[in-house]
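From the methods appendix. Each design record in this collection lists the tokenized structure first, followed by the designed amino acid sequence. Records were kept in a plain field format so they could be parsed without special tools. The example shown here is representative of the layout used throughout.

RECORD:
FOLD TOKENS (363 positions):
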């Protein structure tokens, strides 16, 4: 549970915070759908009898509610393939129908049902199993190393009744873990399930703090883990530095895709990188592009040290001249910064300290 009020109990039943996701600690709302109807009072009862239940690390399931009065934030016992499990109700009402449509789940499909609210002994057993998971993970990693398997046990999850334990692992290739399952079953005395996850999903399950100083997007709100290409960094004119572009998962950061569409739309106004300007002094090649200011810099092949700045209109004029079969006289004729302006700026930069000194003496 997220806050202290969730632990208060009446007659052995957990009270729950009933804050509808607006928990003071902020942890109840992680990976939940924002219920924008929560503060709107209505006399119409919730007729949709399917609720959303979240388990460990954002794993969600949808269950039929037969006759229980439920509210968000309450722990609930749900059916499982064998035995039962305990999760937290995260969404009720008509918004669940939208989530089912989004995930391609048919309302008429066979779903497990909600059983009852857990009592105090079941809650304590569930908490003991959660505290046991870290020790089991260490033992599981040691056994995998002894067998020489190229895999990493990233997380462990016990079913609330203790009849099954799920091991989440990452591996580059296929892993033959038939002997591993035998060792696990003998060691932990329960049913074993192995689930392979990707590196991005592993980071989302474990969580952490990104280079931006905030919690990882994949572990807080980002559910759609899309593929990120190195071209996303090139479009945004970022330096191709793997240490800065990679996230904690070792893959390219998901945030590289956030502004990619904006950059692609802005680059439509710019010519391609291989476009050369043919002048009487020689060919000029593109050196730099500033998307925000809509400026480009060109330099002659023979003199890469001297750059000339152009806006989009001036560049298109020179390109149209070349398309007509003619040469541009010189880059200086279309540049935004003239040579006299450059010399003036240089002179001002040299004398800037003298001016401050003169003002100081005058005072």
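DESIGN:
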């Amino acid at each position: 549970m997220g806050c202290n009020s969730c632990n208060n109990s009446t007659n052995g039943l957990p009270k729950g915070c009933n804050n509808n996701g607006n928990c003071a600690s902020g942890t109840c709302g992680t990976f939940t759908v924002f219920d924008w109807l929560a503060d709107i009072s209505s006399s119409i009862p919730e007729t949709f009898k399917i609720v959303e239940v979240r388990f460990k690390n954002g794993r969600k399931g949808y269950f039929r509610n037969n006759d229980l009065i439920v509210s968000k934030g309450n722990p609930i016992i749900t059916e499982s393939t064998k035995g039962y499990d305990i999760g937290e109700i995260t969404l009720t009402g008509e918004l669940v129908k939208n989530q089912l449509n989004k995930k391609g789940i048919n309302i008429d499909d066979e779903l497990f049902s909600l059983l009852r609210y857990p009592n105090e002994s079941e809650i304590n057993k569930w908490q003991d199993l959660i505290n046991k998971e870290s020790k089991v993970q260490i033992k599981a990693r040691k056994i995998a190393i002894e067998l020489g398997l190229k895999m990493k046990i990233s997380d462990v999850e016990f079913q609330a009744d203790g009849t099954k334990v799920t091991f989440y692992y990452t591996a580059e290739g296929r892993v033959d873990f038939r002997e591993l399952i035998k060792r696990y079953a003998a060691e932990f005395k329960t049913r074993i399930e192995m689930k392979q996850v990707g590196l991005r999903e592993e980071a989302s399950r474990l969580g952490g703090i990104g280079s931006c100083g905030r919690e990882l997007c994949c572990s807080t709100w980002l559910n759609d883990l899309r593929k990120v290409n190195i071209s996303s960094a090139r479009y945004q004119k970022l330096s191709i530095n793997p240490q800065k572009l990679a996230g904690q998962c070792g893959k390219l950061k998901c945030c590289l895709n956030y502004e990619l569409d904006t950059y692609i739309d802005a680059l439509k106004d710019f010519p391609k990188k291989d476009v050369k300007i043919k002048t009487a002094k020689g060919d000029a090649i593109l050196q730099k592009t500033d998307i925000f200011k809509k400026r480009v810099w060109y330099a002659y092949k023979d003199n890469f040290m001297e750059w000339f700045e152009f806006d989009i209109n001036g560049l298109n004029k020179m390109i149209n001249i070349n398309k007509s079969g003619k040469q541009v006289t010189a880059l200086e004729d279309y540049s935004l910064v003239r040579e006299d302006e450059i010399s003036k700026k240089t002179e001002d930069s040299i004398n800037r300290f003298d001016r401050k000194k003169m003002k100081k003496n005058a005072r």
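APPENDIX NOTE: The first strand starts at residue 9 and ends at 10.
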